[in-house]
Amino acid sequence: MRQVERGLEITGERIPKDFMCEIHSAGSRLAEFYLRLKSTSLEKITKFLLENNIVELSGFQNFDYKNNEIIKGFLADLSGSKNDLKTIVESLKNLDGILEVRFSDNVLNGIIIDELFFPLMVGGERSFTFRVESFGAILKRLYEKFGTGAAVILYEMGLGMGESKFKSVVSKYRVDKQTAVKIILAERSAKGWCIAQLENFNKNGAVIVAKELFECLPFRDNQERPISQFFRGYLAGVFQQLYGKNVNVIETECIAKGDSSCRFIVQVAK
């Protein structure tokens, strides 16, 4: 197999990404904001927050190319501000270029939880989050109840998802099949699945290395053999679409059995 060419190597450790969900800060004056503004007014918002000692604790910012507008959402600590929430909101509304302001101060025992933004969208697709520990508990329950049958269920679930994802990426971005695979593997990191790299690739198969694979993390250093079924099936679905043929996917290394990463060999069926 030939080595896959990559862009510039990422140096240093990956940085955890904590998206806006909730903040716990007992004793603080907390609030949530939704702002819609003209793109030219972003500097005014930044200046306003600084001048009023309003600290952004967590948030996001999206640019609407079609309307030349910015959507800004954030959870904030107002403890350092001399103004009350009502005054802050009215002041924001009066800033030039601010099109809409919404807010919430629903704090539960020092915890403010995002309730202004729904549904959760990732890459333009409706999504939901799942704790790795919760997924691990589901896997353990499945294996307890169904034994080896659980492996078949998980593999088939992954297979269907991989096939669907491949078709979606090709249609959405209008890319060739090889580029679609690269996009899908890159997305696994952005979506928190793992850090996936395509090490080798040719007409007969491929090698994929997955670091910190979510499916295997709950079993780290606790199994005698590789345990991935869902992601193994997912890769099978993706590469069957790429090759237009059935493929076999084998996990040869796994963090569940003490390896540093999970390694998958894709082979085109003869």
Task: Compile the SSE list and pairings.
Elements: E1 2-3, E2 22-24, E3 30-38, H1 42-51, E4 55-64, E5 69-77, H2 85-93, E6 98-104, E7 107-108, E8 111-113, E9 121-122, E10 125-126, H3 132-146, H4 148-173, H5 177-190, E11 195-202, E12 205-211, H6 230-243, E13 247-253, E14 262-268
Antiparallel strand pairs: 1-11, 2-8, 3-5, 3-6, 4-5, 7-8, 9-10, 11-12, 12-14, 13-14
Structure description:
With 270 residues, this protein is an alpha+beta fold. Strands 1-11-12-14-13 form a five-stranded antiparallel sheet, with helices on one face. The mean pLDDT is 95.
What's the total number of strands? 14
Count, helices: 6
CATH class of the largest domain: Alpha Beta
Helix/strand structural class = alpha+beta
In short:
By secondary structure, the protein is an alpha+beta fold.
